Amino acid sequence: MRKGSLVLTWVILMSLCLVGAASPQVVIRHWQHHHESRTPVLESVAKEFEKRNPGVTIEFEPIPYDAYFDKLLTALASKTGPDVFQVPMGFGIEMSRSGLLAPVPESVFTTKEIEASFLPWTVSQFKYNGKYYGLPTDVQTLVMFVNDTLLKEAGLDPNKPPRTWSELIEQSRIVTKRDKSGKIIQGGLDTRYKWAVIN
C-alpha cells in the first residue's frame, strides 16, 4: 500500500533578509532538528550560499530532536527565534495563523511563482489570507511492506492487503497480539512516520 508523496518537512520563512541584492553584513539564523545525514549536507549548502552571496552569513544551528520543538516555540513566543527554520507539515496550519511569522516576501518568491512551482497539497497548509508562510523542503512517497506469514496466522489473505486507511487500521488491530496483562507482544503496524498514519 502506498500513500503518495507525503510532505515530510517544511521551511517556515519568518524573514528572509534577502530583498533585492544582498546588503553587507546580513546574518540569517537557520534552525533545524539534528539529523546525522542531513546536517552535514545543510552545512555544505550554507557555505555554498555564502559564496554566491557575499556579505551574507548563515548561522546554522542543528538542535537535538528531543529539545527542538520546545526551544523553537519558546524562542518564537519571545521574539528571539531564528529567521528560517524547519518543522513537519502538521505544524503548517497552526503556525501560519499564529501571528508569529512573516509571509514569504513577494520580492523573493511571489504567490504566483509558488503556485506554479509546487503541487497545491504541498503548500496549502501554509497559505493564510492569500499569503504563504512556508515552503516545502522535500516530499516523500512511503511504501508499506506486508508480512504474509503474520497475515495468514491472523486469518487474513496476503493477496488482499489493505487498500484504504480504514482497512489498514482494521487489519493492524487483527494482527496485533497482547499477553494476559494487555501488553502488546506483536504489533500489527510499525512505522517511523507515525504522523503519516495519524494525519
Walk me through what this model shows.
With 199 residues, this protein is α/β, with parallel strands linked by helices. It has two domains: 2-138, Periplasmic binding protein-like II (D-Maltodextrin-Binding Protein, domain 2, 3-Layer(aba) Sandwich); 144-198, no CATH class. The protein is 33% helix and 26% strand. It has helices spanning 38-52, 65-77, 92-96, 111-117, 120-123, 148-153, 165-175, 194-198; strands at 2-13, 26-33, 56-63, 84-87, 127-128, 131-132, 134-143, 177-178, 184-186. The strands form three sheets. Strands 3-2-4-1-7 form a five-stranded mixed beta sheet. Strands 5-6 form a two-stranded antiparallel ribbon. The protein has a two-stranded antiparallel ribbon with strand order 8-9. α1 (38-52) links the parallel β2 and β3. The radius of gyration is 21 Å and the shape is elongated. The chain starts with a strand and ends with a helix. Mean pLDDT is 82; it is low at 1-22.
Q: Describe the global form.
A: elongated
Helix and strand element order: EEHEHEHHHEEEHHEEH
Q: What is CATH's topology name of the largest domain?
A: D-Maltodextrin-Binding Protein, domain 2
The termini sit apart by 16 Å
Largest sheet, described in full?
A: 5 strands, mixed
CATH level-four homologous superfamily name of the largest domain: Periplasmic binding protein-like II
Task: Tell me the β content.
Answer: 25-35%
What is the spatial order of strands in the main beta sheet? 3-2-4-1-7
Low-pLDDT residue intervals, each spanning 5 or more residues: 1-22
Domains counted in the coordinates: how many?
2
- The assigned CATH architecture of the largest domain is 3-Layer(aba) Sandwich
Radius of gyration: 21 Å
Helix content estimate: 25-40%
| Structural class category | alpha/beta
Provide mean pLDDT, rounded: 82
Q: What's the total number of strands?
A: 9
- In the CATH scheme, the class of the largest domain would be Alpha Beta
Q: Please, what is the oligomeric state?
A: single chain
How many distinct helices?
8
